[in-house]
Amino acid sequence: MSLETVRPSPGYEDILPIEYRDLVKHGQYGRDVKVSEIGKFKELVEEHPMCAGCAMTLFIRLTMMALPCPEHTINVGTAGCGRLAISQANIPFIYGNYGDTNSVASGLKRALKVRFPNQFKDVVVMAGDGGLIDIGFQGLMHSWFRKEKFTTIMLDNEVYGNTGGQESGMTMQGQVLKMAPRGKEVEKIDAMALAKTAGCAYIARIAPTNPARVMRTIRRAVLIAREVGPTYIQAYTSCNIEYAIPTPDVMQDAFDIEKERYGFEEIMTDEAKAYITEIEKKQKELAKANAKK
Amino acid sequence: MSESTQTKEEWVPKGDLQEIKDPEWLFHEAPRKTEFITGSEAAREAIRRANVDIAISYPITPQSETMQQAGYLFDEGYIKEYYRGEEEIGVMSALGGASRAGVRSLTATSGPGLMRGLEAISSWPGARTPLVMMNMCRVINTPLAIPPDNIEISFLLNTGLLHAHAENQQDFFDYSLAAFMVSEQVDVTLPAVVSVDGFFVTHARGQVSMFDEKYKLPPRDGWRAAIPAMDNENPPARLSRDAPIQKSNFISYHMHASWQQEVFAAVERSAKYWRKYIGDLIEVINPNAEEFIVSSGACVSQAREAVRQEGEKGREVGLIKIKTIRPWPKRELLAALKNAKRIFVPEFNQAGWLHKELCSTLYGQIKADIVPGPRVYGGMTMPTEMVLEWLEDYRK
C-alpha cells in the first residue's frame, strides 16, 4: 500500500481498529527504524502462531522492521513454518504452491514494472530451505540466472519443520531426521556458491545473533535488488523442536552454530558495492543533519 | 528512417500507435479483412490486437509457433514484457504472479507442457487471476507423442478455468480476443483457456476475417476485479493471512468451500459475457432434426460436412457446435436437444470427455440414445466418411 492508502481517510480514524491506527501513527511507514527502537513502535508483525522460542520468528520480525519501504513491498512465500508469521505481517503476501516462489516473484516483479514504471515495488521472497533448495531449486536458480530484480531470503532451519522434521538439501551430512533414518548421506548444499555462480549482485550468510547486522543486511539486499540485480540472504533460523534445542538455549545455539560454520559472510559485486555505499553515505549525512536540528 | 537504424530513443512501440476501441465494436461492427493464414498466425494476429502486457513462454515440444510469434510481437512493441521461462511450472507460476500484479497476461502450451504446469494452472482460478492460456492440443505422453488429440482438455474440466474450444482458425482469432475481455470482467475475474486442435488448425491454413491491426482492445484495469491486483496501491486481498483460514478447522473448511463455490459461480456468470462477444454458446444447424451430432473443436468441421452430405441425400441431421466447454451451455443443450432421438458425439480423444459431459447433462432429461462416438485419437484424422458410417450403422 502506498502511504496515501495506508492513511485513513478523514473521518474514518475513529472507526478503524486501534491496532491499525497505531500502525499508521506509530509504525515504520515512511521512516527507517533502528533495532534499539524495538518495543517503542507498532511493528508490522506482532502476533503469530510460531513455536515458543523459534529463532525463525525473531529473524522474520527483524526482517519486517528492516524493510526499507514496507508500503511498497510484497512478500512471496510458500508452504513452511515461516509463512505462518510472514502472512500475519501487514505486508501483502502471496502464498503460492510449494516451490513456486521465485517463478511467481519473477512474473510479479516484471508485471509491476510494466504497470508502475516510475514507482519501485520491492518484491521479497521469504521461504524455507526445502521450499527453495529442493522443490523450488529450478525456479530459484533460473530467477538468478535471469537476473530478476528481487530479494530471496532462505529461512534455513536445515529441516522440513512444518511437515514434522524431514531431512532437506540444507541439512548437514550425517544428521538423523525423518527420511534420513541412517543419517543424511550427502553434504549440505552450498547455496552460497550457487548464488555466486549464478551472478547474484549481493549474497549474505547470517545467523540472528546480531539484530542490527540482520537489519542492515536485509536493507542492503532489498535496496540492491531494486536497482542492481538479484540478491540472496541465507539465514540460520534453527528449528528448536526438530533439533531438540531447549527453548532457553535457542540463542546460544545460534551463537554456537555461527561460530562453528555459519559465520557472517557478505559478497557483493562491484556495482552493488558502489550503489549501496552511495546510498549509505547519503543516509549517514542525512542522519547527521537531522541530529543537528 | 528504417527501424534498424532507429536509436532506442526514437523507437516507438507499435502497440502505442494502436487505437483503443470498444470490444463490442471490434467484435461485431469493425470492418474486417480476410486472410488465408495458419491457426498459429491467427493466434499471433489476435495477440497483436489484444493489448497484452506480458507474455511468458516456453518452447514445449510439440510446440506451435505461437509463443515465438509473441516474441516477435514483443520485439515490435505490441507486447510490453516477454521472456522464456525455465519450464512450464515456472511459466505458469510466473504468469499467475504477473496477473496478480494487475497486467494482461498471456501464455500458450500444449499436452505434455500443460500437464507439467497443471499444478500452477489449477491454482489460477482460486487466486482469481485473469489471464489467457492458448492450448494447442497435442496429446499426452506416453508413448512419446506429438500428434493432435485433445485428451488434455479432460484434465482442465474441473479446475474453475473458463474454457473455449475453437473449431478453426477464425474461432481461434475470435475466441482468444474474447477470452481476454471475459476473464477480466469484475464478476468473473478468472483465467481463460482457448483450446484448439493442434496441427489440424495450428499448422493448417484457413480463412480468417480480422479487424484492422491499427485497433486494439482496452487495457486491463487491475483494480477492476473481484480480487484487486496485489500492487500495494490499494488494500490487498488476504487469501492466507489469518490462522482460521490456514489451519484445519471448521472455519477453514467453510472458507475453502465457499471460495470454491464462488469460483464455479463466477464461471457460470461468465456466460453472459461470452454471449456478448462470441454470440450464443452453441451453434445449431437443423434444429428440428431427430438425429444430432454434438461436438466441439475441429471435429465440428467434419461433422458439418457429414450433415451437408446427409442433406444432399434428403436426410436432415442436426449439428450442435459447443463453443464454450466452461461455462458449460447446459440450458442451451437441453433446449436444443429436447426432441432428439439419437445423438452422436464425435471426438478427437479416447476418453470421450465430451460424451461424458453431455450424458451428465441429458441423463433423465430427454429420451435420446447418446452414442459414444465416433472417436479417433493418437493423431488420427476423422474422415467425414467415418461420421457417415456411424450414422448409417446406427440406423441399421
What does this structure look like?
The complex is a heterodimer of chains A (293) and B (396). Chain A has a seven-stranded mixed β-sheet with strand order 2-1-3-4-6-5-7, sandwiched between helices. In chain A, 41% of the residues lie in helices and 12% in strands. Chain A has eleven helices and seven strands. Chain A is globular, with a radius of gyration of 19 Å. Chain A starts with a helix and ends with a helix. Chain B has 396 residues and is an alpha/beta fold. Chain B folds into two domains: 11-216, 3-Layer(aba) Sandwich (Rossmann fold); 282-395, Rossmann fold (3-Layer(aba) Sandwich). Chain B contains 15 helices and 16 strands. Chain B has a seven-stranded mixed β-sheet with strand order 4-3-5-6-8-7-14, with helices on both faces. In chain B, strands 11-13-12-15-16 form a five-stranded mixed β-sheet, with helices on both faces. A two-stranded parallel sheet of chain B has the order 1-10. In chain B, α14 (353-362) links the parallel β15 (342-344) and β16. In chain B, α3 runs parallel beside α8 and α12 (299-312) crosses α15. The longest helix of chain B is centred in the middle third of the chain and has 20 residues, at 250-269. Chain B is globular and about 70 Å long. Chain B starts with 13 loop residues before the first helix and ends with a helix. Chain A binds chain B through residues 1-2, 5, 49, 71-74, 76, 83-84, 87-88, 92-97, 99-100, 103-116, 121, 138-139, 142, 146, and chain B through 53-54, 56, 80-81, 83, 85-87, 89-91, 93-103, 105, 119-120, 123, 127, 222, 229-236, 238-243, 246-247.
Q: Count the strands of chain A?
A: 7
Count of domain modules of chain A = 1
Strand order of the largest sheet of chain B: 4-3-5-6-8-7-14
What is the count of DSSP helices of chain B, taking H or I runs of 4+ residues? 15
Give the strand content of chain B: 15-25%
Oligomeric state of the chains present here: heterodimer
Largest interface: A-B, 40 and 45 residues
Strand order of the largest sheet of chain A: 2-1-3-4-6-5-7
Residue share in helix of chain B: 25-40%
Q: Strand pairing plus helix content of chain A: what structural class?
A: alpha/beta
Q: Give the CATH architecture of the largest domain in chain B.
A: 3-Layer(aba) Sandwich
What would the average pLDDT of chain B be, to the nearest integer? 92
Average pLDDT metric of chain A? 94
Could you please say which CATH topology of the largest domain in chain B applies here? Rossmann fold
How far apart are the termini of chain B?
A: 71 Å
> What is the name of the CATH superfamily of the largest domain in chain B?
Thiamin diphosphate (ThDP)-binding fold, Pyr/PP domains
Shape, per Cα inertia axes of chain A: globular
Rg of chain B, Cα atoms, Å: 21 Å
